[in-house]
Amino acid sequence: MIRKCLFPAAGYGTRFLPATKAMPKEMLPIVNKPLIQYGVEEALDAGITDMAIVTGRNKRAIEDHFDISYEIEAQIQGTDKEQYLQGIRRLMDNCTFSYTRQIEMKGLGHAILTGRRLIGDEPFAVVLADDLCINLDNDGVLKQMVQLYKQFRCSIVAIQEVPPEEISKYGVISGEMIRDDIYRVNSMVEKPSPEDAPSNLAIIGRYILTPDIFELIEETEPGKGGEIQITDALMKQAQRGCVLAYKFKGTRYDCGSGEGFMAATQFCYDNLYLKGLSF
Ligand code: UTP
């Protein structure tokens, strides 16, 4: 039912300069696998097969990653190194990849609007690949959200509790609790100060959006930081209908920050790479 996943991947990644000067942030490896590959795997495991990627200048490596490298294929054919490509081959065999470019980086809301042609008029998932979400022994975060969508049929944002000193990095929701892990959103603020934050429930980089969001983004003026904010459009959607916030099961690493990147690397090294599970 949710067939498409949008990956806004046009941002500059300034927090990771100089690594991101000529390389997309989404290609930063967590041990041996780039962030965006983890995101595509999570989407495929949720039953989503059409990947729609919003890129920008200096992002061509993403397209090359999800394509055949004939030289490498020829080099390793018939050797035991072929196992290293098993994971990426599975994605290429089971998914389609479409790309569009965001010409001016006017914010996450604008990046999502840029993907409109690739998505069309259907509900879709959004993954911000620098948020790495892991739930090893159970369903991935997107799969949990797709299941929830089947029940509620409205936009859903993934949330987690964050400490007060971190709240100003996030979009923050408040709402009415309708299950111990689900809120019906009635307010949403982008990057509030700890004093102004309506709660400690922060939106992370996983969304399910219904397609009416595109018109709402079109009507949205630039907000915090002069950028077109998805939270502002979602707030309108919440006022007109329903937006849910879901406290997902699993761990999320903010790999756009040094601390999160290191924690994710250590976790993936110990739990995936050393066990031969990270190809
Ligand atoms: P971030 O806020 O993390 O920005 O964007 P950024 O540019 O990637 O990183 P920093 O803060 O400068 O280090 C959240 C997501 O939205 C995408 C980014 O690629 C990232 O996945 N994005 C943001 C766009 O695609 N276009 C934009 O104009 C802004």
Automatic annotation (TrEMBL):
Keywords assigned by UniProt?
Nucleotidyltransferase, Transferase
Coiled-coil positions: none
SUPFAM superfamilies in the record = Nucleotide-diphospho-sugar transferases (SSF53448)
The EC code for this enzyme is 2.7.7.9
Does this entry carry the keyword Nucleotidyltransferase? yes
Q: What positions does the domain Nucleotidyl transferase occupy?
A: 9-268
Q: Which reaction does it catalyse?
A: alpha-D-glucose 1-phosphate + UTP + H(+) = UDP-alpha-D-glucose + diphosphate
Specify whether Transferase is a keyword of the entry: yes
Q: List membrane-spanning regions.
A: none
Annotated GO MF terms: UTP:glucose-1-phosphate uridylyltransferase activity
Please state which protein family the record places this protein in: Belongs to the UDPGP type 2 family.
State what this protein does: May play a role in stationary phase survival.
The protein in question is named: UTP--glucose-1-phosphate uridylyltransferase
The organism of origin for this protein: Thiopseudomonas acetoxidans
